[in-house]
Amino acid sequence: MSSIIKPSPIIRCPGPTPMSRRGFMQIGLTGMASLTWPGLLKLRAANASLPKSERKAIIMVWLPGGQSHVDTYDPKPEASSEYRGPFKTIPTKIPGTHFTELLPMNAKIADKFTILRSMNQGAGGHPAGSMQMLSGDPDVRDKPKVKLPDWMSVANYLRSKEGKRANPLPNYVGVNPASPEYCGPAYLGDAYSPFAVSDDPNRPNFEVPNIGLSDAAETRRLSDKVALRKSLDRMERAFDREGELGALDKFETQAMTLLTNPSTRDAFDLSKEDPATRDRYGRNRWGQQLLLARRLVESGVEIITSQLSGPLCGRVGNWDDHAVNQHQFEALRFRMPNYDRAVSALIEDVYARGLDKRVLVVVTGEFGRTPKISFDRSTGAGDASAPAGTLQPGRDHWPRAFTNIWAGGGIQTGGVIGASDKRGEDVVERPCGPGDFLSTIYHHLGIDSSKVTIDDLNGRPVHIVENGKPIPELIA
User: Fold this and answer.
1) How many whole angstroms separate alpha carbon 117 and alpha carbon 69?
2) What percent of the chain has pLDDT over 70?
């Protein structure tokens, strides 16, 4: 296991900066004619020779800004009041293991997941911390652009090399994907970005545009535009030394299938779910995001990310609970009922629907929050924040020790891996770093991260994980 990573100084955000949202990936007829969407589908293929029941898949629930570990899965009831916070602890289905009172539903199904309490990484800022966790970039400095491709894009790329994919759905979908400033395909190219669903699945008129077109005339017009494009590029083929245009034809056909195959529309249609199931996940954006993720993975999508952000987080729309942003504890009281319900419903369904061997669920953010409570003046009123100028509590960035949870994937659940100290400040048992986190994910997908390299733009082979090994308790 990797050693504890040397911490960087704590960074405190100057004030609320809402997370940017990826808009819908607009396919459109014009985009089809100019290869915008087929270009993004280029080489998105995976081996269809294995039965769908055997194809491994992952759902990652991303908590941007960092969930407070000491207020949720790693409480410290014996710590002094300046550390422990106001929440009581409750027992879980794991004997001797307690969560805070904010997680009653998670506590009831704790035997269906494993808690990793000894994650740590070295970057104190959101960009660098996210890049460490999602791509393994060891740089502790915040950068405006990703240098290494994230694990989702890498997995999408590697699976595309395995052979023809029969499923008309994209292999990688972001249901409210993570901010592109913090992750992305880097030198792999946009072809390996997610198919982005950025609208609210809880809206009564929620619809993913240009999926499963049902109008025959519109389909014919689309086919005519594609035929026109092909007639215009014939002369270019004489200079196509790498065979790129032939490959694009193949994936353009997949794009057409995505648009015209009615099963693609069905996969995104939450109205086909039992209303009681929708209620169980929660009739809000987070609940319906995770329900859609479960529905997509059942339809054969193999890489799914879903970011829990926006108004359900509180005033600043994320988990970045500095005192200047929002009242730490009011923010948790505000958001955790929806989080608790949605995450527990997803995990329960993975087991109830027989997905637990094939589908791994990972819930994490880029770091935790400072165990010691800080106080500062609010910069504005809103959900979970007092009026500007009001002194209120918060917790700042904390990469030295934090928690994530793992379910499904054929792993042995109902356990706790590692430990932080009595205040939750540092890892004291079984330290795990970003390389271990990524290697574990790759292992589930059948990718040996110790051996696989991908050439960068200069043709230099780059290991997909530089340092790290799969965490034994988290592999089947």
Assistant:
1) 8
2) 78
Distance CA 293, CA 449 (A): 26
How far apart, in whole angstroms, are the C-alpha atoms of residue 268 and residue 264? 7
Q: How far is CA 409 from the centre of its chain?
A: 16
CA-wise closest residue to 441 among 135, 28, 173: 135
For 236-275, how does the pLDDT look when each residue is reduced to its tens digit (9 = 90+)?
444 444 444 444 454 455 556 566 676 788 899 999 999 9
Distance of CA 325 to the CA centre of its chain: 23
Beta strands in 168-298 (DSSP E): 172-175, 195-197
pLDDT (0 to 100) of residue 168: 84
Give the separation between CA 353 and CA 351, rounded to whole angstroms.
5
Specify the amino acid at residue 305.
Answer: T
What residue segments make up the domains of the chain, in order of their start?
A: 29-474
Pairing of strands 416-417, 113-119: parallel
Distance between CA atoms of residues 446 and 440, nearest Å: 10
H/E stretch holding 306: strand 303-307
- Would you say residue 415 has pLDDT above 90? yes
Secondary structure tally for the chain: helices H, strands E: 13, 18
Residue reference for tokens 């271990």: 436
Q: Are 384 and 331 in contact (CB under 8 A)?
A: yes
Lowest mean pLDDT among 24-33, 62-71, 257-266: 24-33
Q: How far apart are CA 61 and CA 257, in angstroms?
A: 28
Mean pLDDT of the chain: 85
Q: Is the pLDDT of residue 183 over 80?
A: yes
Query: Helices marked H in 233-284 — which ranges?
Result: 244-260, 262-267, 275-281
CA distances from 305 to 2, 194, 199, 332 (A): 26, 9, 14, 22
- Compute how many other C-beta atoms are within 10 angstroms of the C-beta atom of residue 252: 21
Distance of CA 429 to the CA centre of its chain: 26
pLDDT at 31: 33
- Res 449 pLDDT > 80: yes
Q: ∠ CA(71), CA(277), CA(344), 5° rounding?
A: 20
Parallel/antiparallel/unpaired status of strands 359-364 and 402-408: antiparallel
Q: Name 332's Cβ contacts closer than 8 Å, sequence gap at least 6.
A: 68, 71, 72, 87, 102, 321
Q: Is residue 432 classed as helix, strand or coil in its secondary structure?
A: strand
Asked: is 29-474 a CATH 3.30.1560 domain? The reply is no
